[in-house]
Specification:
2 domains, QueA-like, Thrombin, subunit H
Length: 344
């Protein structure tokens, strides 16, 4: 399987550079793999697509303001993009610098705080913030929201709210679980009125989610690792939902990866730890009956995941329709609701 098998043409002007004024104003392309068909709708139509007793599972991770500006000892500028926090004051990060610093080098933040380079592993650096205050406090003071590289503008004050789901609870992500950005209080209330349940996993999205595949053969790619927590309460909620005939729908690919990782033999169980699951066409899903997701980059692992759910040819045809219909793409873009062949 080649990464070029998952290519599609996307005009740059369709990449959403900012959110719509209202979260739930987005469009939604409904793809039914059983009928190999799709139709245009809006995210506010989601309650009508669900039944009382269905369960929507969200990712409640909270995005850290993980992008920092610093200076090297030589006076050159450096940009720090935290990938994950690995200790109380230590992080794994990418560095945007003209020349990579050596172990022991010190970067200085805007307020004079020191960041020491402890080592390097591939594209990532191990850094220690030599400060007394909690690291999350420092990030709130000095950090910027880490907008994806395809958003070409600088982050502004509005992004602190809009590049965050309304139900975000557990800080640790450096990229938003973007399917959840469409939900606001009125939409959540409409779902409750419909009798739709909600549950939560946590997957702290890492900066590796934006790394492109470097090998043409898809099977040679190694996924980045991310931390997940699938709790006992959700496992029980899913069990009761299925016993009552309800469907389980993932809000975002991060939820799919969390649930499937917690069910390696097909039986869901509580799990907290790392996952590097790579879902490709041919994968047999055991934990979801549908997926709400955004549109994904060409040749990306996430496009491969949704192709595994609905079929590559159907998914690429639906993407071509989305381009022709001028949908908005990627993090601040529109949504897609996918009903796989096995959906009830």
């Amino acid at each position: 399987m080649k990464k070029s098998d998952f290519h599609y043409e996307l005009p740059a002007e369709l990449i959403a550079q900012a959110p719509l004024p209202e979260r739930s104003a987005s469009r939604m392309l409904i793809v039914d793999a059983a009928d190999a068909a799709w139709r245009d709708a809006r995210i506010c139509d989601l309650p009508e697509q669900l039944r009382a007793g269905d369960l929507l599972v969200f990712n409640d991770t909270r995005v850290l303001p993980a992008r920092l500006h610093a200076r090297k000892q030589t006076g050159g500028v450096a940009e720090i993009l935290i990938e994950r926090i690995s200790g109380s004051h230590e992080v794994r990060a990418q560095l945007g610098v003209s020349k990579k610093p050596r172990e022991g080098a010190v970067l200085t933040l805007a307020d004079g705080s020191a960041v020491r380079v402890l080592g390097r592993e591939g594209a990532f650096f191990h850094l220690r913030f030599e400060v007394d205050e909690p690291l999350e406090n420092l990030l709130q003071r000095l950090g910027q929201m880490p907008l994806p590289p395809y958003i070409t503008r600088a982050p502004d004050a509005a992004d602190a709210e809009r590049y965050q789901t309304v139900y975000a609870r557990h800080a640790g992500a450096v990229a938003a679980p973007t399917a959840g950005l469409h939900f606001d209080a009125p939409l959540l209330q409409a779902l409750r009125a419909r009798g739709v349940q909600t549950g939560f996993v946590t997957l702290h999205v890492g900066a590796g989610t934006f790394q492109p595949l470097r090998s043409e053969q898809v099977e040679d790619h190694h996924m980045h690792s991310e931390w997940i927590n699938v709790g006992a309460a959700l496992v029980e909620q899913i069990r009761r939902t299925r016993e009552a005939g309800g469907r389980v729908l993932a809000v975002g690919t991060t939820v799919v990866r969390a649930l499937e990782s917690a069910a390696p033999g097909g039986a869901l169980a509580p799990y907290a730890g790392e996952t590097s699951i790579f879902i490709l066409p041919g994968y047999r899903f055991t934990q979801i009956d549908g997926l709400l997701t955004n549109f994904h980059l060409p040749e990306s692992t996430l496009l491969m995941l949704v192709s595994a759910l609905a079929g590559r040819e159907l998914m690429l045809a639906a993407y071509r329709h989305a381009v022709d219909a001028r949908y908005r793409f990627f993090s601040y873009g529109d949504a897609m609701l996918i009903w796989p062949r096995a959906a009830g």
